[in-house]
User: Fold this.
Amino acid sequence: MASELQDLLQRALGSSYRVDREIGVGGMSTVFSAVETSLGRRVAIKVLQPELTADMSTDRFAREVRLAASLQQANIVPLLSAGEAGGFSYYTMPLVDGNSLRVRMAQAESTGTPIPPNEAISILKDVARALAYAHNAGIVHRDIKPDNILLSGGTAVVSDFGIAKAMDVARGSVSGDYTLTTPGSSLGTPRYMAPEQVAGDQVDHRADIYAWGVVAWELLAGRHPFAERTSRQAMLTAHLTEPPPSLQDFATAVSPSVTALVMSSLQKDPDRRPQSAIELLSALEGVLTPSGPVQRPARSSRRIAVVFVALSLVAAGALVVLRFIGNGSRTPAGPTDLSPSVAVLPFENIGGDTAQEYFTDGMTDELATALGRVPGLRVAARSAAYRYKGSRNIDVRRVGSELGVRYLLLGSVRRSGQQVRVSAQLTGSSDAVEIWSDSYNHSVDDVLALQDTLTAAITSALANRLGAVGSVTPGSAVSRGTTSNEAYDLYLKGNYYLNRRRPGLEGAARSFEAAIVADSNFGRAYAGLATTLALLSYFGDTKMENRVERITANANRALAVDSTLAEAHVALGILFGAINEFDRSETELRRAIALEPNNASAHFQLGRTLIYYGRLQEATDAFERAKSLEPYHATIACWLGFALARPPTVDRAIAEATRGWELDSLASVVQNFTATTAIETGRTAEAVRIARAIPTNGFNSGTFAWILSMADSLDLAREVMRTIESRGSTAWRDHLNRSMAALALGDTSRALDALEAGLERREPIASWVPLWVRLYDPVRSTARFRALLRRVGLDEATLNAARRSAP
Assistant:
């Protein structure tokens, strides 16, 4: 039943928002989930508590929130709007799909499974990045705490930046350009308040450093440093006068360097703390927690040490792409040694409207694609360039060296009403000298012309600079696929959602379908829709009706419009792999590679198909090629680790699994294959630790039931079986997970029943754990299992050879 406050809020907001439900109450606000009706986007509406707004100017508060909305960085939840409704002051922000760090910590405590140190370090890095960006913009948060740190899609994001300042200004406490708290103000949460906040002294950004230190101590130790202080006054007194306990005494797995950093952040005197969030980030960037989820066995060889150094660089976000070739390794040459090359860094979304983020990213991606057609010009991988998304004050020389390119293209997009302004700058990375820059204003109804103009200008600038670089015709109706601005805009939105994978697939499908309605001959939109629907065959929570017919129809329509669309063949390859027709999958993916040799997705999906066959060396080669094209893609890294998980490449398997975990430890596929790789490399204890530490979902339940059963913990396997059977095995992937749980329980007859039922239903029976892994050893020699292999075209001898190659 809706609360009285919710009803009042809905009446006051009218048709602008549809307020769904109350989702939380805090010391500062009551939070509601809502839909902004004009854009159809989900938002959180935070209604400030009345006692905080009694002496506050609503107009000044709204104005300051609009200023704070300019904070646009990947680890910051942006503010969208603010206002007054029915006597209540409120502000809005995007509704983040995920839980707070507080919830994650509570889950860890309730299950008795501490948060893995590597996951904790990743979260702390993300928070430090958010602080560094905001502090550079002159914004102090003043209420950093686990409740304001949200976990979504493998990333930690910080909410409520700028609210403290907005409230001060609205009360007339500070001037509009002043970011510090005045004496006597102590807005914040007692458990995380810096001593100077408690004392009511003037504070600056170092108060956020202290709060970060408290969060870090609590996250790594599993308890608050002053946990025994249960009253508000006792807690405040502790922050003022008591030294915190040594973190090392409560978190023995944490490295001494991290312990020292956290303890220094908790100094009572601000001058003795790290003086900036950049210092926090720099200190963490070399950290690779030795007790992380994929511990490497102790070895003394020089090669192991080299791999560890490489992993540390990757974990630090150094963007130095390490390519292992045979038994050796190499690093990218510096820009002065390279052939003509450019990196298109993610354009900045000016204005702070996250509803336009798709347009900014789409402009970036389409420019990179267009430049990729220039003969003789190499364009840096998307996964490498996008690690700089949200960064400000780019050091051109450093970034150019890290990406191994001669030139950087930077830009910004401001979309307001019916107008778009794009500014771009091409700069040499060796000398930071600007080669070309310009700005363009166009109507949103003329975006295609805008992109043509911009691409032509950049191409011309590069051609003039490099001489030998050929020319390319700017994006045309043929290469881009449409002359409809509406269809193209919807296509950009679809690609934006598609790049988010699981959280965005439904939105991607809707956008591509709308693009097709706007232009029924838009081949790229058909291909995008086919790819999205094919991925839903794996990631969707429910069975997709008529999926085979829908995917093949859209892919074939795309190819009928444009026979060179490699993406359509990739979509068919994904589909056929999902319905266990692996020979057709391989055929389609090889066609995609023939059309587009540098298509990372095609090489990656080919590797997956070859893994199902048990052709491990071919699969490894395909994954290596995909990695060379997209070096910072977590899913590629974890699948490569799985493919390498046998002698003599066990060390490299562990290295790649660790790298994938560092890149995105919260993605289900990464969790699944990191744990499976641990099993395949003989590290059962590591696999069990991962399975115990991660919430089980429909994607990984069967795998994790198997892993936990190996540690004589059969409860989860039984729970999986009970859950599936209670709903009649009707949910998507039920048979797949039921077969794995049955094998974990030693019930081979039920396992084979489930495998056969899954095959009849065309579930992706080999997708989570290929049929040659040790899980299937109890049924491998049975006639029923051999018949199942023949039905899906898998060779028993090849699979047995793959099984024997494991350690």
